[in-house]
Every structure is written in structure tokens, then in C-alpha cells.
């Protein structure tokens, strides 16, 4: 079978114009925390990791990257608030660009998903609330947060803006604001967490004010055509759920149109818990219809339902996490309908610079270098 014929048959492997970026296919590398950025500085081993997953005119999203020293909630995650970190990102971005990839940096604040051990001077983590996360069974420890005062909130918005500016200096093509998965922005969005009485809490409009303020500031700084945001209205990780996720998702999709940002990236409702997919009746289609820019979906996709999502116009692009982690040449495997490597969950968060990271085999090992 000729390659050309194959290209026509695989919706995921068709070109797409995302704003000013001409993509050659629809298979996107998910943001994947790897906890190998020792001392919060990206390491040279990330050059190989990201460049292995780069295709010409393919889109990649970095692992979540801390915007400030209060943003950290896990060991050895990278940051982008210091010169040293910006410099360390440069060769990683260059590696992706050398192979023609398009690379955006996911900018992140964990909020209350942190503890005093990660915070400057051992202070309490910050959040929209002072409600702590319940003690967890998995051994992770979260300290009771300190509720940000109304006057402090613009400073945190500004930290996102500066991180975006730094991302541009590092050479990234854009940023993705991490508004998902129970972290700071999601804590403001969700009524299970946000118990504020000021203009950042209460009504839907007020709960979305912080997220939209970040979008506005970052768009002003680097241009809306370089800004994406990730949301997970239906998820309730870290006790960050909402009583009306449909309304929240729709309000955000509609409000984002005002800024003309590049993309909206949404986690599927079926990802009720990180790592498992459930059958469910909720759908992202209303958000897809409401949003004017590029719509990206994530969560539990395989080749077949990714192809269906594109063919049925439920999404423009499909993000792959675990499959892309274990298959550095995933777009090629999808194009050829080739077998996939299995991912090893035990090595997802190991600190080893190679194991479970840059050692997954390519389809054709001779083309891996
Ligand atoms: C090891 C690992 C690290 C992750 N890190 C992040 C992250 O840094 N930022 C984020 O938004 N999501 C993160 N996620 C969620 C993924 O981006 C993705 O949404 C999830 O894995 C579901 O997609 P999949 O079924 O294709 O793996 C992570 C998931 C895994 C497995």
C-alpha cells in the first residue's frame, strides 16, 4: 500500500492550520510531568526526550512548568521564573525546532497541591481557599493552604505573565496555561474548592475571573495567537470538582472567545480519575461548538477513537499522553497502523534520566537517532 493512500485514510494524519502554525498531522504530545528536572532546572537529557517525540510540523506540549517559587508541589519539576531555567530550556527548544516541531510550554501553579517543604521559607502553599485537601492514602502530603487576599491575586496573575515572557525568551512557540487537574487555576474555577466572598468567588463569573485574568495578561504579553489553555471541568482530582461542569465548561469556552486565543485543550469527562477511563454520557461537543479557535481533546484516546474524533469534527487535534510516552514515533505508528509499545506505569515518575523516558524503542530502531 502506498504511503499517499495511507495518508488519505487516517484522519489523525492530515494537515491542519492552527492559527499561524501549519501542522502536518493531528497527533499532539501531552504535557507529561517527569520529575527529572533536578533542582527545578530542565536537564540536558530532556533534549533527547523531546526531540525523540518531534515530527516535522507536529505539536508538542512540555511537562507542567512552575511559574514561580510558590508554584511547586512535586520534586524536580522544571521552572521558568529564573534566568538559569530559561537558559536551560533553550537547547531543549532548539532540539525540537531543529526537527521542525512546534513547541509550547505548559505554565503551572499547583496552589494547595503542595506542602511547606516545597515552599520558600517553609511557608504555607497559597490558594483561593484555606481549606486543606484531605489526607491522602498514597503517601503524598499536602499542607493546609493560605487563602490569598484579594489584593495579592494580581501578583499571581503577573507571575503567569512573566513566565510566558520567559517562555518566549527561551524560544517556545507559545504557552499553554494549566487550568486543569485541581491546581491553582482549577481551584478558583470549581465550587467544591472556591469558598471566597470577594469578586473571585461565588458566582460562575466570579470563579472564572482569575483564569480569564491570567489569559488576558498572558495574551497581552506574548500575543493571543500564541496562547492556549487546558481545562478539565468534569474532573475532580485533588477534591476539585464542580456541581455544574457543563455550565462551567461552556462559560469558559464562550468567555475565551473574547481574547481570540490559539487553542482550548480540554480533558475528556471520561477521565474521572487520572489514569482510568470510564464510559460516561457527558460530552465536550457543546464546548467544541462554543469555542471559535482550535479545539484539542485529551484523555484515554487510542488510534481509533482519535481518528473518529477528527473525522466527526469533535476535535481539531488529539493529545496523547501515555501512548506517546511509550512510543516516541507515535504519529508514524498511527499512520502505518503499527503495533504499539506498552507503557510502564512504574517508571512514569522515576527520577532516572533514561529509564522509562528515552529508552522506549522506535518502530525502526535504525531511524531513532
Ligand atoms: C506521567 C504523567 C504525567 C502527567 N503530567 C501532566 C502534566 O504535567 N500536565 C497536565 O496537564 N497533565 C498531565 N498528565 C495528564 C496527561 O496530560 C493526559 O491528560 C492523561 O495522561 C490522559 O491522556 P492519555 O490517556 O492519552 O494518557 C500526566 C499524565 C501522566 C500519565
From TrEMBL:
Segments of this protein annotated with the region Disordered: 119-150
Q: Which UniProt keywords apply?
A: Flavoprotein, FMN, NADP, Oxidoreductase
Cofactor(s), names only, from the UniProt record: FMN
Q: InterPro entries, per this entry?
A: Aldolase_TIM, OxRdtase_FMN_N, Oye-like
MF terms from GO for this chain are:
FMN binding; oxidoreductase activity
> Residue limits of the NADH:flavin oxidoreductase/NADH oxidase N-terminal domain?
12-339
Matching entries from Gene3D superfamilies are given as: Aldolase class I
For this chain, the family text in UniProt reads: Belongs to the NADH:flavin oxidoreductase/NADH oxidase family.
**Protein name from the UniProt record:** 12-oxophytodienoate reductase 2
Amino acid at each position: 500500500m502506498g504511503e499517499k493512500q495511507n495518508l488519505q485514510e487516517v484522519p489523525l494524519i492530515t494537515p491542519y492550520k492552527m492559527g499561524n502554525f501549519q501542522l502536518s498531522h493531528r497527533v499532539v504530545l501531552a504535557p507529561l510531568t517527569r520529575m527529572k528536572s533536578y533542582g527545578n532546572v530542565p536537564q540536558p537529557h530532556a533534549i533527547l526526550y523531546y526531540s525523540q517525540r518531534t515530527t516535522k510540523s507536529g505539536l508538542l506540549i512540555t511537562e507542567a512548568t512552575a511559574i514561580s517559587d510558590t508554584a511547586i508541589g512535586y520534586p524536580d519539576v522544571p521552572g521558568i521564573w529564573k534566568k538559569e531555567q530559561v537558559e536551560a530550556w533553550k537547547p531543549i527548544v532548539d532540539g525540537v525546532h531543529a526537527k521542525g516541531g512546534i513547541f509550547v510550554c505548559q505554565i503551572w501553579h499547583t496552589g494547595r497541591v503542595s506542602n511547606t517543604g516545597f515552599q520558600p521559607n517553609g511557608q504555607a502553599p497559597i490558594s483561593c481557599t484555606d481549606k486543606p485537601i484531605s489526607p491522602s492514602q498514597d503517601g503524598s502530603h499536602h499542607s493546609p493552604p493560605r487563602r490569598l487576599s484579594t489584593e495579592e491575586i494580581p501578583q499571581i496573575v503577573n507571575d503567569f505573565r512573566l513566565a510566558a515572557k520567559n517562555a518566549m525568551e527561551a524560544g517556545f512557540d507559545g504557552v499553554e496555561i494549566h487550568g486543569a487537574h485541581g491546581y491553582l487555576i482549577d481551584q478558583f474555577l470549581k465550587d467544591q474548592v472556591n469558598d471566597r466572598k470577594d469578586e473571585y468567588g461565588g458566582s460562575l463569573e466570579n470563579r472564572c475571573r482569575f483564569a480569564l485574568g491570567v489569559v488576558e495578561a498572558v495574551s497581552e504579553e506574548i500575543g493571543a495567537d500564541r496562547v492556549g489553555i487546558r481545562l478539565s471541568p468534569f474532573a475532580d482530582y485533588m477534591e476539585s470538582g464542580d456541581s455544574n461542569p457543563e455550565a462551567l465548561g461552556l462559560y469558559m469556552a464562550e468567555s475565551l472567545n473574547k481574547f481570540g486565543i490559539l487553542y482550548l485543550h480540554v480533558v475528556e469527562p471520561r477521565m474521572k480519575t487520572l489514569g482510568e477511563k470510564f464510559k460516561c454520557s457527558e460530552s465536550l461537543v457543546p464546548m467544541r461548538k462554543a469555542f471559535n479557535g482550535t479545539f484539542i481533546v485529551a484523555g484515554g484516546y487510542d488510534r481509533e477513537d482519535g481518528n473518529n474524533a477528527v473525522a466527526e469534527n469533535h476535535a481539531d487535534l488529539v493529545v496523547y499522553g501515555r501512548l506517546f510516552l511509550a512510543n516516541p514515533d507515535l504519529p508514524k505508528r498511527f499512520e502505518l497502523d503499527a503495533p504499539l509499545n506498552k507503557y510502564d506505569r512504574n517508571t512514569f515518575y522515576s527520577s532516572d534520566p533514561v529509564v522509562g523516558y528515552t529508552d522506549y524503542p522506535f518502530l525502526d530502531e535504525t531511524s531513532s537517532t
